[in-house]
Structures are given as structure tokens and as C-alpha cells.
Model the fold of this input.
Amino acid sequence: MEIFDSLYDEKKIKFIGVRDERTGTHMADGYARASGSAGVILAGQNGPGVTNLVTGLAQASAAFSPVIALAGSLSSEHQYRDAFQEVDQFSLLKPVTKKTYLVPSTARIPELVRDSFRTAMSPKRGPVAVNIPRDILSQSVDKSEFFSPKGRELDVLSGPSAKAIDAVVSLIRKAKAPLILAGGGVKNGRYGEAVEKLSSILNAPLATSPGHGDAVSARFDNYAGQVGPRGNVVATELMQTADLILAIGTRIGFNATFFSYDNINRQAKIIQVELDPLSIGRFFPVEMGILADAGVFTDSLVDALTDYKPPVTVTKWLKQFKLKRKTLLQERDAVQITKGPIQPDALFKALRGVCPTDSAFTLDAGTLCLQATDKLNFDVTPSLFSPLDFGLVGFSYACGLGVKIAMPERPVISLMGDGGFGMTSSELGTAAQYNIGTICVVMNNGCWGAEKAYQRDFFNQRYLGADVPNPRYDKLAELWGVRGYRVDTISQFEQAMANALSENKPAVIDVMVDPDALYSFRRDSFKNRTKG
Done:
């Protein structure tokens, strides 16, 4: 209450009330990723208000997103007495944050709040929790001490040594099939143009790690899309056959490889550039590990390649890739619109056609959203916001609200399954109250798609808990004061999306998707299962 009362007269801070602390944290996460600044969430109360933060902070941690959670805590004299709403908040939040604080005195608030912003924003970024006991909030602090930007951000990021750059150039000159793999370090630093320039100099295809397909522009000539089991076959084949992989700002982690040499060439020489020393060579041995900022490294390498001329073998490698990429895109756009329930690929084609080039997309977990990951066009950085390695259902819509607040001039489209939207639909109230013009596309197939696909493919169609009866989501949206559409055909969808885009107001499009269009993404998880 003390923080809320202080915000009442504050003109520089816009308060947005949310319906749930978890979804509010997703909003702060989306705002942080879109703006490049920290997102802040106020947990409304200690105890249950704080426990609701855990999922959102775990999601932000997996995404290295700078979210700051200001959480109330018990009065100091009531701690360890089983008081009302008491829980060990410090221990609860510590595993899902970069750092967790318990403020010991009112006088320390300015220092620890400054430190929380610095910690959240410094490489590698991540969420921070600040627990403030009630009695400490009720006292005063000198306003002149409270906030100074000095020392909150790092102006100089580390770069590679001249010796390291010389060694990289030597490896490049020997390569016949080089690949650039750009990750979150490229995307979050907004280094896409620099990496595109490097790709052009090297004649190397440029792929991205999953969830970071917007690290560079999809319209770049050498763009391959996202790698791995959740990427596309052409980009993944590049990872499987390249003899040199220049991995810039990426951990080469689970979503890119499933930790398997099925998805990356065992014989490839890997040059890995990361700001986190523990990420270098963690999952796959590297020829060279370089502890450096992705952008500083890329600029240094470009400067060192002024006289580089790609050999014929490399030019041929790039040409072969481009032919395969062209075929892949042609096959995608050749999808036929059929009678009956809407097919996911037809929906994605319609999205590619009707959405402006500067559109931003937020995705949920679940098979329909996973199918969309590499089938949309991400022309501007940032344009793709997903749960990444946390695989969270119920993330996309709330995240999209935060993205729209950070980028009000751009269209924001949130893709969700019907089950995930049911978990977070109360935030329609937030969208209506604050007129946040996110468009939510609910891909409604009446089931938990991943679970039903696995029960179909590996458990002899013994379905349990897989079907999800839903209300009319277009009608639910209207009850909240949000524009609602229900569509059964692609032409209806295209018209609804065009209308929603033109209005730039909160909208929900409830899309009836074929319930049989299910796909088992993690087939490897069940490969040793003996069917009974």
C-alpha cells in the first residue's frame, strides 16, 4: 500500500494493474525484451502474491530477461513466527532469479534498488527480486538519494584479443562450408546488421537458434531461419553438414540441438562467442571459445576480413543452400486452402500475407505455436517473443501486452492454443482497461495438442485429460469489452485480421483449427518406450 500510495502522485511512472502476478511478470518480461530496458512487476502482497511470481520469474530467467520484482514481505518483528501469509520468500525466489534481496533497512532501499537494476541489466541479463518488509516500507528515505543512473549500466563490453581474431580468420580461410549461428546475444544487443555484413563477406549462410529467428532480418539474402528439431529442415541440414560453425551469442543449447549430434556435425570446428564463460563449450567441444560481446566481436572480425575473398568451394556451398531455401519457401507458399477445418500451415500462410512487415509475434508453448516458430516472417528486430527453453503454456498473451506497451506503434500478434488462452484470459480485463491493442489469435483445436499427439502416437490412443471444452472465446472477449471474432475459414480469418489491424485495439480471433492436425515434436522422448 505504501508503494501504491507513493505512485499516486508520480507522473513519470505509468502504473498498469494486472489480474494475476504470474501474467503480470510475463508482461514485464515482454516489455523488457521489446524495449531493451528493465521491466518492473509489483507483487501485490507478501505470501501468495509472491508465490505467484515464481513461474513468471523462472520464465524470465530462462530467457535472460531483465525483470525486477518488488515484493512485499512480513514486518521484521513477525518473521519466523508463522505469521499471516508467511513463507520463506528469499529461499523461494533465489533459484529462479539472478539475485534475490531482503532489504534490511529503509536507508538501504536506494542502494539496493540501484543494485537490482544494475544486476538485472548487466551481462548476462536476468530477473531480480527485492523483498521489502512492511515496517521498512512505512518509513521515509531522502528522495534525493533514491535514484541516480550513475553506475547502473555498463558502457563498455568486452571484446576479443587481436590474437583471437587472427586465429578465427585462420579457421575461416580453411573452411569449405562455413555457417554463422546467431543467438540471443545478437538479438538482445541488436547486432543483426553487423552479423548480416559478416555473412555477406564470408558467403556463409546465416541461421539462428530457436526462438531468435528475429536476430537478423528474414529478408536478408543469406538468411536460413532457425535450426534444430523446432526449426526448418534446410537450416538444420546446414548445422548437420557445416565444417565450421561460427556461433555468435548462443549457448548452442537444448532447443538448437536436443543435446544430440543428430542435429550438429560432430566433425565441425566450432567457434563459440559468448559473454557467459560457463556457456562456452558446455554442451559441445569447441575449437575456439571467445569470451566477448557478440557485437564487439563481430565488428572486430569484419575489420580483420577486409582482404578476404571466399573460395569457390564456399561460394558453391552458399549457392546450394539458397536453392534449397528457395524451394522450402515455395513449398510453404504452395499450401492449398481446403474445405473443412483450418489447417495450421494455411493459417500461417495467411498470417504471412496479411500481417505488416514490422509485426511482432508472441508465441506460447504447445504444438501449434511450435509449428509457427519458423513459418512466420520476422523482418525487424525484435519480432519474436517465445517461452524459449522454459516451454511455458500460458505465456504468449500476457507477454504480448507487455510488448505492445513497449512498442505501441507496431502491430503485436499473440498466438495461443485454446488451452493456454484459457489459463490467462483474465488479462483481457487489463487489455480493455488500458486499451492495449494486442491481437490474440487463439488456435482452437479443443485439446491439449502436444499431450493428445503423444497419447495418439505412443500410448495407443488412450486419451485422458487431452480434450479441453472451451467457451466461445470471441464472446468471452466481448464480455470483457474486447473485440471478438470467430472464424471457420481462411477468408474469414484474413478479413478478421485486417479489421483488427486497422482498428489497433484489443482483439481476440478465435480460429477453429483442425483437431486432427497434431504433431509429436519430442519423438525422441519416447523412442525407448515399448508399446503395450
Notes: The two ends are 58 Å apart (CA to CA). Residues 207 and 224 are 5 Å apart (CA to CA). Residues 312-333 form the longest helix (22 residues).
